Each structure stands twice: as C-alpha cells, then as structure tokens.
Amino acid sequence: MGDAGASPPVQRVVTGHDAAGRAVIRSEDWASTQPIPSGDAAFLLLWSTASVPADNNDETDGRDRAVGLTLHGGSVIRVVDILPGCQSPMHRTNSIDYGIVLTNEVELELDSGEKRTVKAGG
C-alpha cells in the first residue's frame, strides 16, 4: 500500500438533525492517516460510538472520543494503512471494529491458524 501515511486523504461527512428533525450536515473534513509509533502502519480514526447500540442523541464527534486501539462496549471505524510485508499482531478487541480493504490485499489469520486473503473489490 505504499509508505505508511502516504494514503490519499479521506473525506468524512457527518450528518445529524436540526431542531425540526431535518437531516443536516454537522461537519465535513478531509484527513490523512498518520504513522503509528512502530512505523509499520498509519491510522486515521473516522468515527466511534461509546455504546452498541449507538446513542444517536450523543453530540460527541466520534473522532474526538479517546478510543485507543479498542473501545470497550463501543464501535470503532478507522483507516489502517499497513505497509507491505508488515502485520498486525493477533488481538481480540472489546469493541465492534470494521475492516474494509480499499486497495491491494490483506491476509487475515485466525487464532486457529486458518488464513484467508481479502482483496479490494473482490
């Protein structure tokens, strides 16, 4: 996927409702992934929820919530740019996390040792 942090910027549009209950755009921005301390990947937090099911009346910007790698009882969606040949350590999270392959491919390895290649667009 190239150098960590070299992913193209991601547009994020956050919607909500006005006092009359009509859908409105609360915020819109562009942001890029930022290298993590280990240097083998770059992260960009897009959104998080403090709970599942989500509280749709919570006005907190999901990017501003302190999530760490996981968020106990919540959900986290972030862009992760993993450098070729690098890997994420095996882990189990306390949150609902989403993995979407946008470019290239990622090898998914389960606790059992089973492996599956997940490809963009396929």
Count the helices. How many?
0
Gyration radius over CA? 16 Å
| End-to-end gap | 17 Å
General shape: globular
Work out the number of β strands.
8
Amount of helix: under 10%
Arithmetic mean of pLDDT: 86
Oligomer: single chain
Could you give the topology of this structure?
Elements: E1 10-17, E2 23-31, E3 34-35, E4 41-49, E5 75-82, E6 96-97, E7 105-109, E8 115-119
Describe the protein's architecture and organization.
The protein is an all-beta fold and 122 residues long. 0% of the residues lie in helices and 39% in strands. The chain has no helices and eight strands. The strands form three sheets. The chain has a four-stranded mixed sheet with strand order 3-4-5-6, with no helix packed on it. Strands 1-2 form a two-stranded antiparallel ribbon. β7 and β8 form a beta hairpin.
List its traits.
4-stranded mixed β-sheet, 122 residues, mainly beta, two-stranded antiparallel sheet, single chain
Describe the structure concisely.
The chain is an all-beta fold. The protein contains no helices and 8 strands. It has strands spanning 10-17, 23-31, 34-35, 41-49, 75-82, 96-97, 105-109, 115-119.
